[in-house]
TrEMBL record:
<dbReference type="InterPro" id="IPR007157">
    <property type="entry name" value="PspA_VIPP1"/>
</dbReference>
<keyword id="KW-0175">Coiled coil</keyword>
<feature type="coiled-coil region">
    <location>
        <begin position="101"/>
        <end position="188"/>
    </location>
</feature>
<comment type="similarity">
    <text>Belongs to the PspA/Vipp/IM30 family.</text>
</comment>
<feature type="region of interest" description="Disordered">
    <location>
        <begin position="217"/>
        <end position="243"/>
    </location>
</feature>
<dbReference type="Pfam" id="PF04012">
    <property type="entry name" value="PspA_IM30"/>
</dbReference>
<protein>
    <submittedName>
        <fullName>Phage shock protein A</fullName>
    </submittedName>
</protein>
Length: 256
């Protein structure tokens, strides 16, 4: 392979790559529609010109045919008048006009076929343009959706690695830590409150039991609701045992 061929291939490949990268689908589709519209205008002009030519040939054919008929009638008139020479001349003119009319008829038939073909091509081109417009709108919508999705993915990719996204993640962790500390403090405060009430409730039981015992020693009665569960007011057998138990209870209360 020669150097010139290699250089030519490199240049062509670079040009193709540059053109491909520069192609905007929406702009290319729009330009394609414009080109097709221009072709449609030219096609319509060609059809109009062909129809005009067809009508002109048809008029020429009709005139030639009319002239041939006229010369035929003149030949008949001359023959009726006994002028055979004039009748011959009229028939000669008729023949020339008839040949012209026949030639024009052949051209007219050919022109009519061309006009019909041009009309068919025109209708086909109009259908293709209509289809292309519909397809262009669909492809444009798909291209716009693809661009939007590409931009979205690019934005999401940048957010995943950007400092702003990292700041959001750090703040979320910090808030979670603050919430955990607040919850722990609330649990500790609740536990301390429970312990205080438990101490108060325990002290009330002891006071109630002590009051009940004093009432028994004095020989009085005590409300059954104020006694601890499972106990009733009863007279102790001997004062010595009561005094001993009372002293023991006082000692236990002093140690609390």
């Amino acid at each position: 392979m020669g150097l010139f061929d290699r250089v030519s291939r490199v240049i062509r490949s670079n040009l193709n790559a540059a053109v491909s990268s520069a192609e905007d689908p929406e702009k290319i589709l729009e330009q394609a529609i414009i080109d097709m519209q221009e072709d449609l205008v030219q096609m319509r002009q060609a059809v109009a010109s062909a129809i005009a030519s067809q009508k002109r040939i048809q008029q020429q054919h009709e005139r030639a045919q009319a002239e041939a008929n006229t010369w035929h009638q003149r030949a008949q008139l001359a023959l009726q008048k006994g002028n055979e020479e004039l009748a011959r001349e009229a028939l000669s003119r008729k023949k020339a006009q008839a040949e012209t009319a026949s030639s024009l008829k052949a051209q007219l038939d050919q022109q009519s076929g061309q006009v019909e073909q041009l009309k068919h091509n025109l209708i086909a081109l109009e259908g293709k343009i209509s289809e292309a417009k519909t397809k262009k709108d669909m492809l444009r919508a798909r291209a716009s959706a693809a661009k939007a999705n590409e931009q979205l993915q690019s934005t999401m990719g940048r957010l995943g690695t950007s400092s702003a996204m990292g700041a959001f993640e750090r703040m979320e962790d910090k808030i979670m830590q603050m919430e955990a500390r607040s919850q722990a403090a609330a649990e500790l405060a609740g536990a301390d409150l429970e312990s205080q009430f438990a101490a108060l409730e325990a002290g009330g039981d002891v006071d109630a039991e002590l009051a009940a015992m004093k009432a028994q020693l004095s020989g009085g009665s005590v409300d059954q609701a104020s006694l601890p569960e499972g106990e009733t007011s009863q007279q102790q057998p001997t004062d010595e045992n009561v005094d001993a138990e009372l002293e023991e209870l006082k000692s236990q209360l002093d140690q609390l």
